[in-house]
Amino acid sequence: MGDGYGDRPEGVLGAAELFDGVGLAYERAFGRLPAQLAAVAWLTARLPAGARVLDVGSGTGRPVAALLAAAGHEVTGIDVSRTMVELAREQVPGARFEQVDVRDHTPPEGGYDAVCAFFPLLMMERKEQIAAVRRMASWLVPGGLLVSATVPADVEGLEITWMGRRARVSSFSAEAYLGLLREECGLEVLHHDLSVFTPEVPGGEPEEHLFCYARRGAAAGG
Ligand SMILES: C[S@@+](CC[C@H](N)C(=O)[O-])C[C@H]1O[C@@H](n2cnc3c(N)ncnc32)[C@H](O)[C@@H]1O
Fold first, then answer.
1. Mind listing the pLDDT tens digit of every residue in the chain (222 residues)?
2. What are the distances in angstroms from CA 27 to CA 52, 71, 196?
3. 174: Cβ contacts below 8 Å, ≥ 6 apart
């Protein structure tokens, strides 16, 4: 599945290619995000033992899937990058990982108690991000939790250099992303916070991050 933009200019990578190349360097640069660790702690404090959790764009499996699996949850990670899936399988044997695009993933019958989605959608065009967030919300059991993060910015198809690679990214302002969770997905946003993180790489540029904790209504379909 492509990114929705049609042909990419030469040198601009799709998500799978880009993250195949980044591999473990991602974890070294971004593996100690305080806001992400807080989000996972918040989630594990609320989940019943053995909860079924999906981590979308699970990367190297650390820290998110590793922490959730260590807390005793049944964790599935999905990622479009083969390298990331291989790394995650090696590093987190207590979770299962599948190489699949979030747009093609089929949830198990009964869905998930929680879905984590930390920065997996930025390389899709906005209409595809909206569809993906709606689908992830629909995979939750009534009362289930969607914990997500994005880089808030009102951009569509912006070419950038990130981790030394050229990519095309899209995103939403913080207000629009919260509106997507609330109005498009019918979720209750329980908490959101903005933070700034500088990746731990030479010359790392500060990034703004938006973390959101949201819940599907208790009534089916709510
Ligand atoms: C910025 S990294 C974040 C990794 C991890 N969620 C974390 O926060 O540590 C984004 C991850 O999402 C994956 N990804 C990007 N587009 C995806 C898609 N359409 N479906 C599934 N995974 C995707 C990438 O391969 C990459 O591993």
1. 456 566 777 789 999 999 999 999 999 999 999 999 999 999 999 999 999 999 999 999 999 999 999 999 999 999 999 999 999 999 999 999 999 999 999 999 999 999 999 999 999 999 999 999 999 999 999 999 999 999 999 999 999 999 999 999 999 999 999 999 999 999 999 999 999 999 999 989 999 999 999 999 986 444
2. 24, 20, 17
3. 152, 192, 194, 210
Instruction: Give the residue, out of 79, 130, 148, 168, with the most ligand 1 atoms within 8 A of its beta carbon, to mutate for a pocket test.
Output: 79
Q: Is the pTM of this model over 0.85?
A: yes
> Quick one: which atom of ligand 1 is closest to the CA of 26?
2
Q: How far is the CA of 217 from the centre of ligand 1 (A)?
A: 27
Q: Is the CB of 14 under 6 A from ligand 1?
A: no
The answer to whether the CB of 144 is under 6 A from ligand 1 is no
Cβ–ligand 1 distance for 119 under 6 Å, the answer: yes
